[in-house]
DNA sequence: CGGCAGGTTGACGTGACTCAACATTAGTGG
DNA sequence: CCACTAATGTTGAGTCACGTCAACCTGCCG
């Protein structure tokens, strides 16, 4: 394996304020792994042997219920940690992590978590802040699910996606990884069918442009109007 | 103000493994506050000047949306921390905390959070573990909202409540603080009406016993059957 | 004893799920 | 390079769980 360079992780907020020599030590203990699209980084209920950092690609974190439903908890972008369950006192992963596109991840053995957070206060501070903001996210998700209709939730989901992984193109803002209607449905707690209908309707109105596993938001502002529920409901 | 005794907090998991002298120092910096029923411990958007420990009573944490909806995020039982938003890098409280019954809380100025977690590793470890499990809770909440129908969600909510604050009586397991149908609705993302109908139906079947701001679960097992969605749907 | 918060219950409408058929595109092997 | 197949996506029709609207009851507190 080609030896890893600290430049891979130097700019990231998780490792902010850590000396170059320490970064070398940190990355020296990492394994680099390629994960092909639709392959899993880790699996629900599996022993949490490692925690990960996404270097490139996009990962979908999905919870599977006993009765076969899949609920997407979040999407991970490059630079974010994942599989940090071990940090929260779990010994097993709480969800599946599936590569939404081909990915490169770094993996460290779980027991290094303690070492890192003891040795590098900024590491622990940063990661706990990250956990905190995920808690916030989860709570707003609950609020959304409780108070908004499907249309608004889907609109919100698209807005979140373009904010997180949007790429400007001449057509509009493209969600920068393959995403199906089914995926949208699993993010918003609805069905493939309803999601498809909404996207189609929006496409007719020129709000978005669809394609196979592809969504381009043409008019984010009008989408926001829908998300906020102040749509005229013609 | 009567001086506070370390015995108030000695047994709690948050302060587990901390020396008696340190406990004295910790509690020496706390203010004890009584909060009457329906009064607020803190308010959404308000400057997060303090974090709290609930000594007695029950607190409902509620998020208010701009359009007037109220969503109950969680109930706090004695011994739990609340208002720890400040610990997660927020300067303002993310929700309202309302006393569901008359309460006694301890309050510490937010800046002591850093002191405590730096001085007492077990304090920081315990609280972060708590945050972790709240994150888990929030995620399962999202999964529930996405996959289950109202009936199952309400059943789950009651089961959670009796697990957390159930008190055995001769009639069954009583939820040990005043709780209205409206409260149940806000926990489960439904309306007062639907909640009321469900409770009434269950009362007819002898599953629960209701009353004004009062719920007694008579047959937890049958409630679990409903919660799991393996009901015969007669 | 009046008033009000909390609770119940019916009638009705509808958003979104289900069931179902079909269209389109990507990928695969001959 | 084309035929075949499997994903993926679209769209219609029918149904139902739940929300909305509305009326009314009931126990509690001053």
TrEMBL record, chains A, B:
Residues 148-221 form the HTH crp-type domain. Keywords: DNA-binding, Transcription, Transcription regulation. It comes from the Bacteria. InterPro entries: cNMP-bd_dom (IPR000595), cNMP-bd_dom_sf (IPR018490), Env_Response_Regulators (IPR050397), HTH_CRP (IPR012318), RmlC-like_jellyroll (IPR014710), WH-like_DNA-bd_sf (IPR036388), WH_DNA-bd_sf (IPR036390). One of its GO terms (cellular component) is cytosol. GO terms for molecular function: DNA binding; DNA-binding transcription factor activity. Transmembrane segments: none annotated. SMART domains: cNMP (SM00100), HTH_CRP (SM00419). Residues 14-107 form the Cyclic nucleotide-binding domain. PANTHER family: CRP FAMILY TRANSCRIPTIONAL REGULATORY PROTEIN (PTHR24567), LISTERIOLYSIN REGULATORY PROTEIN (PTHR24567:SF28). This is Crp/Fnr family transcriptional regulator. It comes from Mesorhizobium hawassense.
């Amino acid at each position: 394996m080609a030896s890893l360079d600290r430049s891979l992780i130097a700019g990231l907020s998780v490792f902010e304020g850590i000396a170059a020599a320490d970064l070398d030590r940190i990355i020296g203990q990492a394994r680099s792994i390629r994960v092909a699209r639709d392959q899993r980084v880790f699996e629900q209920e599996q022993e949490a042997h490692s925690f990960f950092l996404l270097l490139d690609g996009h990962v979908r974190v999905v919870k599977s219920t006993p009765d076969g439903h899949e609920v997407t908890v979040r999407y991970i972008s490059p630079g974010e940690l994942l599989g940090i369950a071990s940090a929260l006192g779990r010994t097993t992963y709480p969800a599946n992590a599936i590569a939404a596109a081909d990915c490169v991840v770094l993996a460290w053995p779980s027991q290094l978590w303690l070492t890192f957070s003891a040795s590098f206060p900024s590491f622990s501070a940063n990661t706990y802040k990250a956990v905190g903001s995920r808690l916030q996210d989860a709570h707003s998700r609950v609020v959304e699910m409780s108070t908004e209709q499907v249309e608004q939730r889907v609109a919100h989901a698209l807005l979140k996606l373009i904010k997180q992984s949007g790429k400007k193109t001449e057509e509009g803002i493209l969600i920068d990884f393959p995403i199906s209607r089914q995926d949208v449905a699993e993010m918003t707690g609805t069905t493939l069918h309803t999601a498809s209908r909404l996207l189609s309707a929006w496409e007719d109105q020129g709000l978005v442009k669809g394609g196979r596993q592809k969504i381009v938001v043409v008019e984010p502002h009008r989408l926001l109007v829908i998300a906020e529920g102040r749509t005229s409901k013609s």
